[in-house]
Amino acid sequence: MSERPTTPIVAVALDGAGWHPAAWREEAARPEALTDGAYWVNLARRAEEGVVDLVTFEDSFGVPVDPFADPTGERTDRVRVRLDAELVAARVAPATRHVGLVPVVTTIHTEPFHVSKALATLDHTSHGRAGWQVRVSALGSDAALTGRRDVPDLTYEDYLAGRGTDYVAAQFAEAAAVVETVRALWDSWEDDAEIRDVATRRFIDADKVHTVDVETSWFSVRGPSITPRPPQGQPVVTALAHATVPYELAARTADLVFVTPHDDASAASILAEVREAEERVGRTGQPLRVVADLSVVLDTAGETGAARLARLDARASEWTTDARILTGSAADVAVVVAAWTDLGYDGVRFRPAVLPDDLDALVDDVLPELRARGLARTAYDAPTLRGLLGLPTDVPNRFAAAV
Amino acid sequence: MTKPRKQIVLGAYLGGVNHHTLWHLPESGSQIDFSSFEHTARTAERGRFDFFFLAEGLALRERGGRVFDQDIVGRPDTFTVLASLAAVTEHLGLAATINATFNEPYELARQIASLDHLSGGRAAWNVVTSFDAFTGQNFRRGGFLDRSQRYERAEETVALVRELWDSWAEDDLVIDKAAGVFARSRAGTFAHSGPQFDVSGRFGVPRSPQGHPVILQAGVSPQGRDFAAANSDAIFSPFGRFDEARAYYDDIKARAAGFGRNPDHLKILPSASFVLGATDAEAQEKAQWVREEQVTGRTAQILLEQIWNRDLSGFDPDGPLPDVEPALDAPPFIAGRALLSADRTGTIAALREKAEAHGWSLRQTVIEEFSRGDFVGTPTQVADALDDFVQRDASDGFVIGSHLVPTGLDEFVDDVVPLLQERGSLRTDYAGTTLRDNLGLPAPARVLPTVPAGV
């Protein structure tokens, strides 16, 4: 059993050349390297130098599009390439030792069986550092990529305007079923199923491997998984949420939720909403860890964050994003993190506007400042991601016979 | 002008979920720890192999409704392990067996292309099909495909995957920071309407460092041979004996030529295992020991159960073959395993004939008839035999495995590879950076997409 950490969780969200749409045009940015393994290894290692708890790898089922400014992907000044995030995380795993690796993996159009074994394998390869940011696909354009289901042709604009709520609710219900199925498949092997009993030539104890027998209106999966139980038992499940339905998905199925407070008022209300969602769905066990997203455009040696943002915006039109944007110094960041922590947040996830510039500023300036104020860990004190986050590391297997 | 010596293509695979892997030996390592895969891959790269190859798991095998526990059980996810191996290797190809039945072409194309980029152009896809309802129970796309339709499904899958790999032209990726152009507006656009798939949209992975990932297949039936000869860069051959292998080789190369391809650009690779000894006698003795360890009495019964489709545990392994008939119409007694042969009755008749002619027991019959191609002898004898097989055009190389995981390949790389290098039949250093470079294969020309104008 692990202790709740004494300092907030610190995460970094990695996306392409950075979260700002014009990031790729910055001098130090390397847009030609977005498909290179070494590019991602370097970023993850940098985050590890900063003693960050975890990095997330952004992904989407289709090409990256800006849902607010360019939903149909017509603009030619946006990054339009992206590799499969789970494989990027796998590429990074042997080159890192401590940092948690949390790829975004979409539900709905993917096979729960494949998702489960991929993440279980990432956990094996990384020796217990794997997580999953659950993404729910509701776009018509995503469905067209597999042609398997008829969906209403809804765009982000439609959703923001409140259209398609029944459909969205159905997608989230399916997503919850997917996550539950993946979790069940992770448990389908008990930890000690492999026995290598030479005398009876039994490699496994067949009584310790279980079918999951999931039947839903969207899919059924018999199981067992082909992959033995992950080292963490249950890799860390996360989700990004902005509204009631996603808060409830997180409350039902996740260990950690990323949220997007815009100001002090919404910071308080969002936290309350998450707790209400937990009550509504009847969550038991560990409370959700609530981590607030913060986009950062940081002061560098040559330029203030504000000046950098102005330059970036001039190139790409104003940056519309779901997360609060902070321009400034390490001290400015620390003030926000302290305020959120006082409100009851479990941590912060930084979205660097430009890579590598803002990741460097995070590691070189912000994280030392946070550590000095007791707002970030000073060392990796647990071998697994669950351990770092203060989640129980001895996870009971739902199929194991009661002793 | 002398023709340069034909180079032997070598692939390495990690023994897995079958009776060939001797997990009970004390030296046998983990089947799931990354360290086992890393060790084998690094050893193969040290031995200048062309690629490392990993099979696929889709369901745990069952016998009589219970998870099968005698052989290795448990596999990692293929793509994930290969992506991790990309981090600890530099030149070794990374070949994934991935079935075309329980995967969507869009996802497949994206994952293989991602692996290709993440490895600097070293990915390969071994295309297989699945057609059993047992395995299908694990998937949304479950149920089963009629066996006769599997090639149609696979053919359209491969075609669609290739269209996606071709959806970016070489000059679509512009990346002009000053002008603010990342990619041309049509980059990655695709549309495909066929009997199996009706899909459209944009593909987010640009053209591979090696043009296209390498495609491998196995194919024995006439339809399978044509499919492979038309579509693949390499074919897994089931033939280990020289005459059969040579006949297959000639046939496949001729079919490739018939499709307008350069036959040298299609590599034919049987699997092979090896047993080394300081003397020939020592090696032969060890090979026999390995076979007997692999095929215990119980294992022999179980292997025959796949053919007889019924419980054979009551038949003495040291006695004759079972005198009962196969349960042809019963549900599969052993589930989740590739069907060994479609013609149970014919197979059984052949086995009975051989057993009678040689006076073999049940167990001996299995040991003799179920062994893979073994190259047995001193390192020099094994090197000679492998080289001879290739130089005389019975194959273009081999995919090599061992009964010992993960260190079994070590002695092959230590003792046999240098001899092949001395003969000039194997590279001493990698010349290029991609798997196509290793195999001497050209990148396919881009096939222009048939997307309507104005899209």
How does this model look, in words?
The complex is a heterodimer of chains A (403) and B (455). Chain A has 403 residues and is an alpha/beta fold. Chain A has a single domain, classed as Luciferase-like domain (TIM Barrel). Chain A contains twelve helices and 13 strands. Chain A has helices spanning 37-49, 85-92, 112-125, 140-143, 156-160, 165-187, 244-253, 264-281, 305-316, 330-343, 357-372, 385-389; strands spanning 9-14, 54-57, 100-106, 131-135, 194-197, 202-204, 214-215, 220-221, 236-240, 256-259, 289-298, 324-328, 347-352. Helices cover 35% and strands 16% of the residues of chain A. In chain A, helix 3 crosses helix 6, helix 6 packs parallel to helix 7 (244-253) and helix 7 (244-253) packs across helix 8 (264-281). In chain A, the strands form three sheets. Chain A has an eight-stranded parallel barrel, surrounded by eight helices. Chain A has a two-stranded antiparallel sheet with strand order 5-6. A two-stranded antiparallel ribbon of chain A has the order 7-8. With 455 residues, chain B is an alpha/beta fold. Chain B folds into two domains: 9-280 and 373-439, Luciferase-like domain (TIM Barrel), CATH 3.20.20; 296-369, no CATH class. Helix content of chain B is 36%, strand content 16%. Chain B has an eight-stranded parallel beta barrel with strand order 1-2-5-6-11-12-13-16, surrounded by seven helices. A three-stranded antiparallel sheet of chain B has the order 4-3-14, with no helix packed on it. In chain B, a hairpin with a 4-residue loop joins strand 9 and strand 10 (198-202). In chain B, helix 3 (105-118) crosses helix 5, helix 6 (222-231) crosses helix 7 and helix 9 (297-308) crosses helix 11. The longest helix of chain B has 17 residues, at 242-258. Chain B is globular and about 80 Å long. Chain B starts with 8 loop residues before the first strand and ends in a 16-residue tail after the last helix. Residues 451-455 of chain B have low confidence and may be disordered. The interface between A and B is large, with 75 and 75 residues.
